[in-house]
Design goal:
The protein is of the alpha+beta class and 301 residues long. The protein folds into two domains: 38-212, Double Stranded RNA Binding Domain; 216-298, FlgT, C-terminal domain (Thrombin, subunit H), CATH 2.40.10. 29% of the residues lie in helices and 36% in strands. The protein contains five helices and 13 strands. The chain has helices spanning 2-22, 24-34, 58-72, 104-112, 183-212; strands at 43-47, 51-52, 78-82, 117-123, 127-133, 140-155, 161-174, 216-223, 226-229, 242-253, 259-275, 280-287, 295-298. Strands 1, 2, 3, 4, 5, 6 and 7 form a seven-stranded mixed β-sheet that branches. Strands 8-9-12-11-10-13 form a six-stranded antiparallel beta barrel. Helix 3 (58-72) packs parallel to helix 5 (183-212). 26% of the residues are buried.
């Protein structure tokens, strides 16, 4: 009897372990639905013009950018906005590893428009190498062309770069296959064969990273104890939703001249009373004093 009880008890705990491991994603979705918090607020995301360091040309670059945006649109958690065409990420002060420049004026524009994040993607120059492929005695000399793309996400609240991801694919050509072929034809072949895979992985990484980051907003104005915040119906703010307010923290300037704001101490909490399309009104609940420019985060994140 004791042995049978032990077996039944062990089977019960093993079943629990199995369901815990196999159903973790389901559990998470149930918890997200039951416990409202910052993760059900959508992120406003500005996408800067795609930087073409590969020399693909305007038409190819525009098509790649459009495909990238379409993949990002698959997430219901993001509100996408096209970045201004008059501000570009230049190539005159490349990072030695990733070759990206983040213009302060572009970050400022995203902040002024109430964005939560700014995406800057770069098509890196094609890399060509030569190596032996195949197995003996059928070895060949092949020309390997590597195509790559770097995606950067900037948190507009702090100014921090919190994701930089390089993704690449290789395409093999026999050494005597390329001479005489049209260069544009080869580039089109590489883009058509390899870029969809890169875009799929990069868009998945962007969505995952943005969704897991807490929604962060700002106090826009304070007048007669009425507080205006930059989150509204468009991002999913609800009446009577609570937000924690943080004071402005220390500002750190890096070697490139960009400033990063560290989140300050908690000032108090506010609760929304009126929800408009792009902003909301709130009243103090705990603490103070509340000032324009202070950072807010939904309670529960």
């Amino acid at each position: 009897m004791k042995k049978q009880y032990f077996i039944l008890r062990s089977s019960f705990f093993l079943s629990l372990l199995f369901f815990a491991l196999s159903g973790c994603s389901t559990t998470k979705s149930v918890v997200d639905k039951i416990v409202p918090g910052a993760h059900d607020l959508k992120k406003r995301v500005m996408i800067a013009p795609l930087v073409d360091q590969a020399g693909f040309g305007q038409e190819r670059t525009a098509q790649i950018a459009a495909n990238f945006v379409e993949l990002l649109k698959e997430s219901p958690h993001l509100l996408l906005f096209q970045g201004p065409q008059d501000i570009h990420s230049g190539t005159d002060s490349k990072s030695p590893e990733f070759g990206v420049v983040i213009p302060p004026e572009l970050v400022k524009r995203a902040q002024d428009l109430g964005m939560n994040a700014l995406i800057i993607a770069v098509l890196n120059p094609l890399e060509a190498t030569t190596r032996k492929t195949g197995i003996w005695p059928f070895r060949d000399i092949s020309r390997i062309i590597e195509i790559s793309m770097t995606v950067n996400i900037i948190d507009t609240t702090s100014g921090c770069l919190y994701l930089t991801q390089l993704d690449s694919e290789e395409m093999d050509f026999l050494i005597d296959e390329l001479p005489g072929r049209d260069e544009n034809e080869v580039i089109d072949q590489i883009i058509e064969a390899k870029m969809p895979r890169i875009l799929k992985r990069q868009s998945a990484a962007v969505i995952e990273d943005l969704v897991k980051e807490p929604w962060t907003g700002k106090i826009l104005a304070v007048e007669n104890s009425m507080i205006k915040i930059n989150g509204g119906e468009d991002v999913g703010v609800r009446p009577d939703q609570l937000f924690t307010v943080f004071a402005r923290g220390e500002s750190i300037t890096c070697r490139a001249g960009r400033s990063f704001d560290i989140l300050g101490k908690k000032v108090g909490k506010i609760k929304t009373t009126s929800i408009m399309e792009n902003h909301s009104l709130a009243v103090p609940v705990v603490g103070g004093s509340f000032l324009a420019g202070q950072t807010i985060r939904a309670v529960g994140d």
